[in-house]
Design brief:
Elements: E1 2-6, H1 11-27, E2 32-37, H2 43-46, E3 54-56, H3 68-91, E4 95-98, H4 104-113, E5 118-122, H5 129-134, E6 140-143, E7 157-159, H6 164-169, H7 173-180, E8 187-192, H8 199-208, E9 218-223, H9 229-238, E10 246-249, H10 255-260, E11 264-267, H11 271-280, E12 284-286, H12 296-306, E13 310-312, H13 320-331, H14 334-346, H15 352-363
Parallel strand pairs: 1-2, 1-4, 2-3, 4-5, 5-6, 6-7, 8-9, 8-11, 9-10, 11-12, 12-13
Helix pairs in contact: 1-15, 3-4, 8-13, 11-14
Length: about 375
Amino acid sequence: MRVVLTGGGTGGHIYPALAVAREVSRQHPQAAFLYIGSKHGLEAQLVPRTEIPFQSVEISGLKRKLTLDNLKTLWKFLRAVSDSKKMLREFRPDVVIGTGGYVCGPVVYAAAKLGIPTMIHEQNVVPGLTNKFLSRSVTKVAVSFSESLAFFPSAKTVLTGNPRATEVMHGNAEAGRSFLGVDAGKKIVLIFGGSRGARAINEAVVAMVNQLGQFTDTHFVYVTGDVHYEKIHAELQQMGDISTNITVLPFVHNMPDVLAATHVLVGRAGASTLAEVTALGVPSILIPSPYVTNNHQEKNARGLEKVGAAEVIVEQELTGESLLKALSAILADAKRWEQMKKSSLSLGMPHAATEIVDQLTAIARKK
Ligand SMILES: CC(=O)N[C@H]1[C@@H](OP(=O)(O)OP(=O)(O)OC[C@H]2O[C@@H](n3ccc(=O)[nH]c3=O)[C@H](O)[C@@H]2O)O[C@H](CO)[C@@H](O)[C@@H]1O
């Protein structure tokens, strides 16, 4: 099977595409792939770390209001459709899958116009603009939550979950611990603010970092996000003697292994992160990003809170103190942790990638 993958901008759109690729390879060992993304998105850094060839098209996001910039965007879109058509004619895919982000627009649209079977995957409850636009032309739509079914044409939409859930089930806790240099006797608290880091979380962590020594059986893994790393690293160095039970990293490339070793997660409430923690049953403290369309991260987070899988701290109430308090409450109470784990697992959809690939295989051109 020959598969074109597209999706980009942030990790929340890219990792699901890579998870689909891995599952396709498991089911079809001879499969060939091409990833089409944007040179300016995170995909340009993440995809070349895999064996999947990467090509790019120029594209930018549509503003919700009509502006002169939108005319330029439209022109760029049409040019990207024509570039995508060239790449698709050359690669001759049997199927194309888009996992969201602007770049999916021209690639999936071009594929549909060429008569190639297409599928989009929506990670969030409320769909993004690009997926809504594409849903008219694609063969299949896969969604992560039952609440999203209503946004798409019912005849072609299926509920599958997020493929990252399956991917993290293949993580190896021992490999995660050995990568972090943390021995098996210690609990790991993983802190990260989505795929790009989050300033508010960074500020709260810096404010409480001197208190972490009190958790003698716990190691903290704090991922700042690439762009924030230098600044945070310098700030922590200036503070002098910070606790020794913390590792600070700019980005983690082997998240399935690290998550498999994680006792509690502190982070944003992006859809892929939540699919990962619920597949593994990791209790979490969630600080939804307020800077996203329709405040969708808070909706994501409240879903976990409702069943007791997570504690939610809204960004206005996030301080070093409130974070430390929430952490202490979970770390000191084994029963509560067990209950949170169970509730988290109850929301997990660990077979998502398999279901998506079954659907892809069913619609793909047969030789
Ligand atoms: C600010 C913003 O627009 N956020 C959106 C974006 O977030 P973002 O890309 O941050 O979202 P997610 O939480 O969904 O995904 C992050 C992904 O990156 C991985 N990861 C993260 C850090 C790291 O060091 N290493 C690593 O591998 C995580 O394991 C996860 O797979 O896309 C999501 C999915 O459409 C949306 O729900 C979010 O609201």
